[in-house]
Amino acid sequence: MFGPGATRLPGLVRDRACGAGALLLPPIREHVRSSARTDPEVALTALPSVIEGIDSDPNAVWLANVTMAAEVLPLLAAIPASRRRPVPSIARCGDGLDSCTRPARVEMQNPPYGRVRLTSEERQRWDHVLYGHANLYGLFIASALEGLDDAGVLAALVPTSFTSGLYFSRLRETLSTHAPLRDAAFVVERGGTFTGVLQETCLAIFSKRRARRTRIASLNGHVEKVAQVKSPRGAGPWLLPRRADDAPAAVAATTLPLRLADVGYRCSTGPLVWNRRKVDLVSNPFPGTAPVLWAADIDGGTIHRDRNRDALRFLQLGGNDAQILLLRNPAVLVQRTTAPEQARRLVVADLSPETLQHWGGSLIVENHVNVLLPIVGEPLLKREVLAAVLATEVLDRVTRSLAGSVAVSAYELMPKLFPPGTVSLARI
User: Fold this and answer.
1) Which run of H or E residues covers position 315?
2) Is residue 250 part of a domain?
3) Where are the beta strands (DSSP E) in 110-193?
4) Which stretches in the chain have pLDDT values below 50?
5) What is the CATH number of the domain that holds 302?
6) Residues 106, 12: contact at Cβ < 8 Å?
7) Which of these three, 67, 96, 125, is where a domain ends?
8) Which contacts of 303-307 are long-range, i.e. CB under 8 A and separated by 24 or more positions?
9) How many CB atoms lie within 10 A of CB 386?
10) Closest to 281 (Cα-Cα) out of 378, 160, 364
């Protein structure tokens, strides 16, 4: 266990959601190895000053303390029996979101995730990193950031939605201001990391010592270098290439000066939430109904009627439905949710005047489809040109560098980047 080459921990290493202590095992082993050159009794006594685990589950805390106590048995064995004391507890029960009195040199975590309801006091506490819904893992990142010392490093294994979603915009602003992203390693094999979550996962490392460049890698049983890019800044979506061959397009995209709004388009999500209107969906038309366009109807880049949706093809209108739901103008349509196995992330179709007329002159777009329409008057780009550019392979790869999940939200489409060599469109 003891040996040369081990480095003493430079400060406190803390995990605010330690569970059974798995993430703390490597640093505690390093501490034990480095103690060959020190008094083992002093090293054991000082252990809680360099390692700390917090968890709300008392059973997990008990297991963490037992596991870590087993790791320091060589230190205990090196102490004469007459001077041995109980191994100090390293993990404790507590709320990982609470402020900690001791600053940490390293905060590491695989935090809980999912939406959480906050009290008014809690929302005020985290207002600087919240926009809309609160997600637990975002709060844990913010809490760990506050707990770092001036040279601290934060390492978190988290879904990548924080890199692009609107709900994480304030968190991105806070991170890029106080601890820019230094490294991002994307987990290629997602199975077993975040069960049932259709999102990418990454190990993100943020540093108080400001980084000008971000190193990007992929994790698939081994670490594979992808690229180095300018460290992302600001509240907008962060462009981080997942593959080495995506890096040139992603870097070029960040330099382009315009956004979709600048060329005359706005983006919104289809207004029909079908499971709220189940009783009004029918298979055959009759007076007072309108056809429904589903995400499956634009697979392959053309608009067709997917047979699997024919049982729910028409919606019976009522009240203000015609005014709120009906799309009567040509538009560019983009799937809002894609399957992980799909070859393309950007699935685009042109709803031309002819196609719209074929559907009866108006239709209802279901909320798994995004709709791009002119803001007012004649846009700078023709609709069919916009659809063709969005359908390019380069834009699809840029989207994969931008989106943190299989969803392509209206928020992420608005800063959609256009590739060099086509037209000079770009981001918010």
Assistant:
1) strand 314-316
2) no
3) 115-116, 134-135, 148-159, 181-187
4) 1-4, 416-428
5) 3.90.220.10
6) yes
7) 96
8) 303/333, 303/349, 303/350, 303/351, 303/355
9) 26
10) 364
